[in-house]
Design a protein that fits this description.
Strand content: 5-15%
GO molecular function, one term: kinase activity
Order of helices and strands: EHEHHEHEHHEHH
Shape: globular
CATH superfamily: P-loop containing nucleotide triphosphate hydrolases
Keywords: Kinase, Transferase
CATH architecture: 3-Layer(aba) Sandwich
Number of strands: 5
Helix content: 40-55%
Structural class: alpha/beta
CATH class: Alpha Beta
Low-confidence stretches: none
Pfam families: AAA_33 (PF13671)
Number of helices: 8
Strand order of the largest sheet: 2-3-1-4-5
Largest sheet: 5 strands, parallel
Protein name: Kinase
């Protein structure tokens, strides 16, 4: 592992498992890893629709947010559908400009499997299989060197292990000293 922060891109179709995987990667890593979720940044922060009929702000905003976190010394796990049609250029630039390691992962699942996985979520978002079909793009790869495919046969543990091991985050110490040296966390531990 270098002294530079690590950039991890986790992409896939709706319902593929990318959010759950990204959250678990960040949880297992510990402090010093920023989790950037496309839906949170685009839908909640910007309140922007994801459409090819507009000139969206979200791609540039998401890349700028990732650059800021990386520049502050955080590892970054960026997850989302991040369709190449709208995001490929900014993601390629982000990877090219980042002085540290960058790793890309893509959930390579059939449409039927994304629907099946969506139905297992305890917090199912209010959209239908018909909605999902409209968003589905098979093998929407970025074409980055070393882009990892996560196959349909991979479960959550398989996906998380792949990301942690191949990105180097699994063996890297947390970037901040919490909870042993941070006064705020040390007080919370004593409670």
């Amino acid at each position: 592992m270098t002294d530079h922060s690590t950039l991890v891109l986790i992409r896939g179709n709706s319902g593929s498992g990318k959010s759950t995987t990204a959250r678990e990667v960040r949880r297992r890593y510990g402090r010093g890893c920023a989790l950037l979720e496309q839906d949170q940044l685009r839908r909640v922060v910007l309140r922007e629709h994801d459409s090819s009929r507009i000139d969206p702000v979200a791609p540039a905003f998401i890349a700028a947010t990732a650059r800021a976190a990386l520049g502050l010394g955080y590892h970054v796990v960026l997850e989302g559908i991040l369709h190449t049609e709208r995001y490929a250029a900014v993601l390629h630039d982000l990877v090219a400009e980042h002085p540290g390691p960058a790793h890309a992962y893509y959930f390579d699942l059939s449409f039927e499997e994304t629907v099946r996985r969506h139905h297992t979520l305890p917090y199912r978002v209010g959209f239908t299989p018909e909605d999902m079909r409209g968003w589905y793009t098979p093998r929407d790869l970025l074409g980055l060197a070393g882009e990892h495919l996560i196959p349909e046969s991979a479960g959550l543990e398989d996906a998380v292990t792949l990301v942690l091991e191949t990105s180097g985050l699994g063996a890297a110490p947390p970037r901040t000293p919490c909870p042993t040296r941070c006064p705020h966390c040390a007080d919370a531990v004593q409670l």
